[in-house]
Write a structure and sequence with these properties.
With 560 residues, this protein is an alpha/beta fold. Helix content is 47%, strand content 14%. The strands form five sheets. A five-stranded parallel sheet has the order 3-2-1-13-14, with helices on both faces. Strands 5-4-9-10 form a four-stranded antiparallel sheet. α4 crosses α7 and α7 crosses α9. The longest helix has 31 residues.
Length: 560
């Protein structure tokens, strides 16, 4: 059986992430990992905090802490938030781990031995006030591409273009505000990606299942933008460069961060070495399918630079099979921003509403083919309609009726008729379609099909209306009630990957305490006619509607 290695882009450690970051990689990766587990597949879901580079140093300075303490604290905060959002990582590691230090230095040595590392002189920004080089985010200025006046020295938040600090117009120090900056030279190591151009092109061409825009971004880099990349920085915090004369330098965060997927897998394996071997996942193996989830700004590094590292090392490393990239989730016509504290942040979201409400809306509106806009009004309307009016109504109506008419037990008696057979056929087709959407990583379509199944179940109950026939046709009422209860249970099982907490609440009412509900394997006709005599627990309202007053409070808090 195929095993699935799933990784999500590592969130920077510098502060709590916004919900745009959540839907950009973390949440869809979790939904897919959960789905694959439901089908019985062997899944390893790996992530962790990205703790090196200027974001970590600047975050520590702003917090008045040393970098290690800052990273320790922020890693714990993020891990707790993701746990409360239901993200089911098998391991949530750290790029600052000893395992990643050793692996990164190993890859450097292998690449160096293969002639793919070259020492070059690099022009860098120097501040006499700060008495140091200012790499990456230590410099702000005007973007030369779009004119955004607070572009960072590694990437512009206005247009998304990658930038070198020396390209910025009117640059200034992030530390001191110094504008009298100089350009000086410093020696650095470059990964000679251009020497791997043919191999990288052949590798990309051999992949399948990538979204068209991901393929386009990768091929664009390989045809017109491929450059040798500098992999070292003049920083104190990071993985040391094992070369004499480079003691004051560390590896660039974008060199070591993807390697941390392997490092985190090593950490996972070391927690139970008797039954886990990280090599089974990361050495070339035909029975492992590796899927990466990431935002479009991360595509070039994962589609070009990380493969260059793995291929160039000359060892049998497992490379990604599918890159599932996402566009931006926008906020009020602009972009979410962690550094600018713009948008809805994951801790705030959980303070206001249960995680599953956010999970549902984000997956149902995932920015898969283009950017998506978030608004509180749209969020409230969609959640009320889909979760409260459709799914919640289905569950609460049939369970409440069962307690009124049948003592809370799934009734026996009666024979399924044409209506039930027709419904079973429709659900069989819809369940198969839903599975295909999950398998092909089409998240919006998966949510839409899940919603359609809920709606079909509600339509059946509305038409069968067992509450109107308990006296005139008790056998028919028993069939309709039994079918309705099984519809509620099946609907919960099929929705588990997206709304796990709501699904678990419903499943437990039916006595199903399995950690992972199995994907339906029997025909829907059988599934809708089972469980006679089983006790079903009464439930409070599954999803409380968000009132107009509550919606106004959310709009005020989140600036709409």
């Amino acid at each position: 059986m195929t095993r699935f290695l799933i990784t999500s882009a590592l969130p920077y450690v510098n502060g709590v992430k916004h919900i745009g970051n959540l839907i950009g990689s973390l949440l869809p990766a979790d939904v897919h990992a959960r789905f694959r587990r439901q089908t019985g597949a062997d899944v390893l879901f790996i992530c962790g905090t990205d703790e090196h580079g200027t974001p970590a140093e600047l975050g520590a300075i702003q917090a008045g802490q040393d970098v290690r303490t800052f990273c320790d604290q922020q890693h714990a905060i993020q891990a707790d938030i993701y746990r409360r959002f239901g993200l089911s990582f098998d391991y949530f590691g750290r790029s600052s781990s000893t395992q990643n230090h050793a692996l990164t230095q190993h890859f450097y040595r292998r690449l160096d031995a293969a002639g793919l590392i070259e020492e070059r002189e690099l022009r860098q920004i120097w501040s006499t006030v700060d008495r140091r080089f200012l790499p990456d985010r230590y410099v702000l200025g005007t973007c030369p591409h779009c004119g955004f006046d607070s572009a960072r020295g590694d990437q512009c938040d206005g247009c998304g273009n990658l930038i070198d600090p020396t390209e910025l117009i009117r640059p200034r120090s992030t530390l001191s505000g110094d504008t009298a900056l100089e350009v000086r030279t410093s020696r650095h190591f470059f990964l000679r990606q251009t020497l791997l151009l043919d191999e990288l092109n052949e590798w990309v061409d051999s992949r399948g299942g990538w979204p068209p825009f991901v393929v386009s971004l990768a091929k664009s880099w390989l045809t017109s933008e491929l450059k040798d990349r500098c992999i070292t920085r003049d920083l104190a915090w990071g993985i040391p460069v094992p070369r004499a004369g480079f003691e004051q330098k560390v590896f660039y965060v974008w060199f070591d961060a993807p390697i941390a997927y392997i490092g985190a897998t090593q950490q996972w394996a070391e927690a139970d070495p008797s039954s886990r071997d990280w090599r089974h996942w990361w050495r070339q193996n035909d029975d492992v399918r590796y899927i990466q989830f990431l935002g479009k700004d991360n595509v070039p590094f994962h589609a070009v630079s990380f493969p260059a590292t793995l291929i160039g090392a000359g060892e049998p490393w497992k490379t990604v099979d599918v890159i599932k990239g996402f566009h931006w989730l926008n906020y009020q016509g602009g972009k979410f921003s962690t550094s600018g504290r713009r948008g809805i942040f994951t801790d705030q979201a959980l303070e206001e509403l249960p995680a599953d409400l956010w999970r549902w809306w984000l997956i149902a509106n995932a920015p898969e083919t283009s950017d998506t806009d978030f608004s509180v009004r749209r969020f409230v309307a969609d959640v009320n309609k889909d979760l409260a009016d459709v799914f919640g109504n289905l569950v609460n109506r049939i369970i409440s009726f069962t307690h009124q008419a049948f003592g809370g037990r799934i009734p026996a008696g009666g024979q399924a008729g044409e209506q039930e057979f027709s419904l079973a056929g429709e659900l069989g087709r819809r369940t198969a379609t839903l599975r295909v959407h999950h398998e092909t990583l089409e998240f919006r379509r998966a949510a839409a099909e899940t919603r359609a199944i809920w709606s079909a179940a509600n339509a059946y109950l509305q038409q069968a209306a067992p509450w109107t026939t308990t006296k005139s046709d008790p056998a028919g009422a028993a069939v309709a009630t039994r079918t309705g209860l099984n519809l509620a249970y099946l609907s919960a099982v099929l929705a588990w990957s997206i709304v796990p907490s709501l699904s678990d609440t419903v499943r437990r009412a039916f006595g199903d305490n399995d950690v992972i509900p199995r994907w339906p394997s029997a025909s829907c006709g059988v599934l809708l006619d089972c469980g006679a005599g089983k006790q079903v627990l009464q439930l409070p309202p599954l999803v409380q509607k968000i009132t107009g007053e509550r919606a106004n409070q959310l709009a005020v808090r989140f600036g709409e």
